[in-house]
Amino acid sequence: MKRMSKDRCISLLMPALFIAFGLWMLIEGLQMKTMLGKLPSIVGALTAGLGVIQFIMDYFDPSPANRFANSNVLQVCIGLAGLAIYAFLMKRIGYIIDTIFLSLFVMFQLGYRNWKVAVPVAIGFTLIVFCAFKLLLRVNLPMVFLNF
Amino acid sequence: MSDILLGLQQFADPIVIVALIGGVLLGLTVGALPGLNDVITISVLIPLTFGMKPAVALALLIGVYSSSATGGSIPAVMFEIPGTASAMLTAADGHSMSKQGKTKEALSLCMTSSFIGGISAALVLLFFAPTLAHWALKFGAPEYFMLAVLGMSSIVGMAGKNAVKSFLAMCLGLWIACIGMSPTTGGLRFTFGSINLIDGIPLVPQMIGLFGICSILKLMDAVGKKAKDVSQLDTSIVENEGKDRIALPNRKMCKRLLPTWLSSSAIGNLMGIIPGAGMSMAIFMAYDATKKRCPKLDFGSGVPEGIAAPEAANNAVIASSMVPLMALGIPGNGTSALFLGALTIHGLRAGSQLFDKTPDIAYMMILGFIFANILMLPMALLFCKHLATKVLKVNPKLLAGCIVVLCVTGSFAYANNLFHVGVTIVFGLIGYLFWKFGLPQAPLILTTVLGNMIETNYISSMVYGQGVGIFVTRPICLALLIVSAIFMLMPIIQIIKKRLLAKKVAGEVQDS
């Protein structure tokens, strides 16, 4: 069997994931009661089938493109981690502080370094959004120790 | 005619006009805030209107309802984040135009198309409400199922070269629609023991993730190695600063967009009248119909038709969704159900009694939709002129820090649930992976919306009709089936046509 290039491996990852996902959905659907599992079973079988077709198409593609070339995947992962931490901390440190930090984090991640502008913008914009949602539209944003 | 004059008399009170203007302005603002929509705003406003006169209260609510969908297109064009679900397709072509330095032109097109769609529906409401409402009541489970099939058939049209990828995205959307309590049996599916998933995954946090968070992840993806992409936006604005402006489309553009406006408004009106069909289906169908009518245009790359179609359709749904409510007392969607509540609070009854006993209020509401649209156009253009000019001068990196605040707050505000912030982040990742692997997002969103509709109505049809024969024996069903088949076969017919044309050209070249 010929050795697959890194680009081809990456391009095959997506259909492989869909095949696995489709099979899982099919098995889960078949384990459910008749009516309940009907749609998931059909969708699972369809997903797996289409995944196989896409896999074959990508496997025989003469020039697979590396879709992650020139991508800063690490930055994306850090960004996602930052967002997850934000969601985790929201009820612990309150909406305002958490959101100001998130805003600053995103600016920093994208390479903005002028803190004299970034800090007032993050604080100001968060407070404007807070006023719009919490005070005008009565959205119950978590406040913790800044509650009033 | 005398009833219309009675309705018109209500506007002699300046407070009614002020309420309408305030409603339009509020609608534009909340529409522009991701996560907030007309339903949330009207829910908040109804208790506040308790002490107002019925005409003032209704004018305020009509203003909000008429303009919120239009407001939703502002962040869709500027940041690729639809402010409301109805602006999800506007984001594709609108933001592409924005990246070409034509933000103001795209916004102007949004506002004009919204006005045309809105005014067409208001006129339909004025002249045909009772007739159309009775026709819409003929829709049962088999018709709704076929309507959903018709909606799904638009995926075939959207597929283009990536048919398999489109269908894979569609399958993922159908799985997402399966999550939660089954609408038919009440059993739980794919909830993984989480109570937050019992109600399924709502569309708004999904969209904020797929568009808003995804756009920030795309910027992060470009940091360092393709730093040019991050600052691409401001460069293009400088280049087009003189040409790009907020203005009504010129005669040439109007002539070009007229068929799109007419067809999309008609689709929007039709979808609005049918209770439960919804705005999402209307915009997808209008977009697909326009795409089929203009096969030479590269939709998604910033074509005016790609903005005009969904914008005219979504605003046409607004007033036409009031047809079943006002004529029969049956709310056509969530917002018109809130209007039913508002009418009840003020001691009014929806349905034929509204026209018989209180014609002044009935026609005031209808005229309110017309006036709201007339007021909305200049107000929205002014709103965009001042907002767009200022926002577009901000550094994109700084802007991203503000966008993320809107995204997370909007997803939380949707149901005051932190879980939805998590949903937004997950869908941001899904959107990013879709972008990386070249999977289209539109089929995913459409099937998420239509999944439950298909399943529920299919099972109901089977129980009612005891077999698939029901889909061909009912006239509306059969008509919808034929239209769906045409929609599905159209790409194949076009391929055959192209091949035949290519053969003919090759033959002519050989002969010469």
Structural write-up:
The complex is a heterodimer of chains A (148) and B (512). Helix content of chain A is 74%, strand content 0%. Chain A starts with 5 loop residues before the first helix and ends in a 12-residue tail after the last helix. Chain A has helices at residues 6-31, 34-59, 73-93, 95-109, 115-136. Chain A is flat and about 55 Å long. In chain A, helix 1 (6-31) packs antiparallel against helix 2. With 148 residues, chain A is mainly alpha-helical. The longest helix of chain A has 26 residues, at 6-31. Chain B is an all-alpha fold and 512 residues long. Chain B has 23 helices and 2 strands. Chain B has helices spanning 2-10, 14-32, 38-48, 54-79, 90-99, 103-136, 141-159, 163-178, 203-221, 227-230, 232-239, 251-273, 279-293, 304-320, 322-328, 334-345, 352-357, 359-391, 396-413, 419-436, 442-465, 470-473, 475-511; strands at residues 180-181, 188-189. A two-stranded antiparallel ribbon of chain B has the order 1-2. In chain B, helix 1 (2-10) crosses helix 18. Chain B starts with a helix and ends with a helix. The model of chain B is unreliable at 226-239 (pLDDT under 50). Chains A and B meet through helix 1, helix 2, helix 3, helix 4 and helix 5 of A and helix 3, helix 8, helix 9, helix 19 and helix 20 of B.
What is the SS-derived class of chain B?
Answer: mainly alpha
Adjacency order of strands in the biggest sheet of chain B? 1-2
Helix-strand topology string of chain A = HHHHH
User: Would you tell me the overall average pLDDT of chain B?
Assistant: 82
| Helix/strand order of chain B | HHHHHHHHEEHHHHHHHHHHHHHHH
Kindly, what is the distance between the CA atoms of the first and last residues of chain B, rounded to a whole number of angstroms? Answer: 69 Å
Unreliable spans of chain A: none
Shape of chain B: globular
Please count the beta strands of chain A (DSSP E, at least 2 residues each).
0
Largest sheet of chain A: none
Query: What is the overall shape of chain A?
Result: flat
Question: Structural class from helices and strands of chain A?
Answer: mainly alpha
User: How would you classify the quaternary structure?
Assistant: heterodimer
Rounded radius of gyration of chain B (Å): 23 Å
Number of strands of chain B: 2
Biggest beta-sheet profile of chain B: 2 strands, antiparallel
